[in-house]
Structure formats: C-alpha cells, structure tokens
Amino acid sequence: SRTESTILTTSIWNDVHTLSRGIKPIDLGVGFPNFDIPAKVRQDLIDVSEESDYSVHQYAKGFGHARLTTALCELYGPLLGQEQLNSARNVMITSGASEALFVSFMGLINPGDEVILIEPFYDAYLAQVLLAAGTPVFVPLRPSSDRSNSSADWTLDAAELEAAFSPKTKVLVLNTPNNPTGKVFSRPELEMIAGLCRERGVAVISDEVYEWIVHDELSHVRIASLPGMWERTITIGSAGKVFSATGWRIGWAIAPAELLNGPRYVLQLSGYIVCTPIQEALARSFERETALLRQQSPECHFKSMQRKCQQKRNQLAAALKSVGLHPIVPEGGYFMLADIREIMAKLDLCSDSSEVKDVRFMKWLLQQHGLLAIPPSHFYSAQHRSIGENYIRFCFFKDDATLDQAIKVLQKMA
Ligand code: PMP
Ligand code: GLN
C-alpha cells in the first residue's frame, strides 16, 4: 500500500505517462479535451500576442492582472452572494487550480492541524496537506448500494463526518462537482457540511474547477454563498477547466482578504506572479462570456461546453452499460466511474492479488487493449481503498474519433 513517502514522491499522472510509453493509447485517462479550444478564446490570445501595450507583456501588479481579477469579481461576486468583491483584496491568480490549492494549504495549515478530506479526493490534496505538515482525516462518500447507478447515490454519513471533527480540525476540503465520481453536492448536503464547519470554526477550501459542467439541469451550489460561509471559505477555480485549455495554467482563489493572507505570503515567495498575456486573454474571454451568460445566450461558452459534455457522457454511459461495465452516471464534470467487478470475474483477472484491483485492471486494459483509464484507488487513503478499487475512471471529454475507438475496444473486450 502507498506510504507517505510514495504519496510525496510519485503521482498517478506521471505513472500513466511512463506506462503509456511506446503504446500510443486511446486516451480516456487524464482529464483534458483532445480537441480545439473555443475559437473565440484562441482569438483572444492571438489579439493579446499582437498587443503593443507593454503592460500586458510585463509583470502583473499585485496578486493578479487587474483586468482578470476584475472580470472574475464581475462574474463570481453575484454567484457567491458578494456583490462588493474587491479585485485586489479578494482574488489571487495562481498557476492553475493546483497552485491555488497548494498555497491555500501551505498558508492555512500549521503542523499538526487536521484537515478533513472527503474520499474520493483529487490526489494532490493529500500530498499537499502532508507537505504542509497537516494531518489528513478521511471521510468517504459511500455508495447507497452495491449497484449504484448515479453519482447522486454516493453520500456522506452525517454522523461519520461529524465524528471526523476534533478540536484540531482546521480545514475541510470540498470538491463539487467531484473528481472522480462526478457527484454534484446538493444544497441540503452542503448545508449539513456548512453547519458543522460553522459550529466548529473550521475553514473550507472549496475546489470548484468543474463548476460549469453540471448535467441534467442540476445547479452548482457554491458553499461560500450559504449563510455564514463566505467568511470561512476559499473558493478555487481553473481557467483550464472553464475554457478547456488546461495548458494555459491559470487558476484563482476567491475569499475574504484575511483568509488569503497566509496563501499570499506563500505565493509571493514561490511563483509570485503568473503569465500576464494569458491573464489578459482570459480577462477578455471572461468579459465576453459573462455578458453572454447574463443575456442567457445559447452561444455562451459555459453553456455550450456543458451541452457537448453531457452528450458525450450519455454516449459513453450507454456503451459501458451494453458491455457490462456498469457505469456510475456522473451529475457533473467529465469523468465517469465504471464498476469493474463483473468484468474482472468474467475475464479471470481476479486470481493475481499482487496489486490493487483497479491498478491491475488499468494495466491490463492498457497493455492488452491500448485503452488508457485511471485507477480511482489513487483518490483514496489506504483505510477506504476497498471502496474505490472496484471502479475504473474514464474521461469522456474527448473527440468523437477517440470515443468511438474506445467504445469499439470495450465492445470487443466484453
Ligand atoms: N482540482 C481538481 C478536482 C482537478 O481535477 C484538477 C485537475 N484538472 C485540478 C484541481 C487542477 O487544476 P489545474 O489544471 O487548473 O491546476
Ligand atoms: N485533473 C486531471 C485529472 O484528474 C489531472 C491533471 C494532471 O495531469 N495532474 O485527470
């Protein structure tokens, strides 16, 4: 099982690159779209690259390029119930959501502070909490039955969550829509979590990078918008996810100025300022898309991305069902878990127990069929890995040719 030192020195994202060498897999693994980013967003970058105004090519002032922090306040202020956000004090621009998470953990946690992680969690949280000398405390989402159909069936046990709080609890990490289950936390679920955090004086780091990809007309509820939560929440987002441009490496943290004090110190001592021209391009994209969103235009990128993604979700879910890889249909995001128990039994892949089940299945799928998927046990502590190892994670935000090829492989395999 993975020890603290392997958690700090290895990563599933590097492992999949190494394992894929020489294979050129059909890639439903890592979470990024393998098709063109929106043309209008690409055009914003072209325009900025031709901009003669020196200021968009030099250091940004403060903790983010002003045009971008202003555009983010304009969009997110009302959504967070904070119309009066101050772009200089309440927003920090980072290198991806990854760095926003890192500086938040480093800035908030002192050695020995406890951090509640809801499982499955995006793997970076655990390594970053350990680096900050925090103590992780794990609470799993539990599927309501052995045959769960939807990410909505994966819920927290309120008593189990409450029992995870102690006088040392400093932070709870929330991720909605969740990677890898696709769970979109409902308002009552968030109220339950918020109630405990308020009562125990705990801060929330809310990772909402998939906020615009919520399916079936559900709504994305921001925990910072609930009563008494703004003052204790850092809300984190990612331009990589919002505009399907994961290589642009821009993320942000939005919070009350006092909560950002520690994270700012860490940021100014590390990367300090991120790429100004990319921030300028994103500012232009956000300004346009916020206006389209307010006009309820179907042209709004946030809406068209969601429609496209939902259609791909439905296609993959139907294909998985037909081959006996029972899917947990996600309410949000672009990942889907599929239950591997039946197929592993059928293919007699269960006899070798030298490795965790889903890792074994992932390697078999890659080596025998050239199809890349992610083993969700990496999103669990050793304590609860037995829940996650029964599944495999597919990313379905891929072009039609890739999805078609993957579906053919799955059909052949069944
Ligand atoms: N949080 C979650 C839940 C993620 O899935 C990812 C990976 N895309 C990140 C954070 C990191 O995002 P970024 O690429 O902006 O660093
Ligand atoms: N967030 C991406 C995923 O879950 C991975 C990003 C990375 O390569 N670290 O697939």
UniProtKB/TrEMBL annotation:
Positions of transmembrane segments: none
GO cellular component terms attached to this protein's record: mitochondrion
Pathway: Amino-acid degradation; L-kynurenine degradation; kynurenate from L-kynurenine: step 1/2
UniProt keyword annotations, A-Z: Aminotransferase, Pyridoxal phosphate, Transferase
Cofactor(s) this protein cannot do without: pyridoxal 5'-phosphate
Listed name of the protein: Kynurenine aminotransferase
Family per record: Belongs to the class-I pyridoxal-phosphate-dependent aminotransferase family.
Gene3D superfamilies: Aspartate Aminotransferase, domain 1, Type I PLP-dependent aspartate aminotransferase-like (Major domain)
Originating organism: Hyalella azteca (Amphipod)
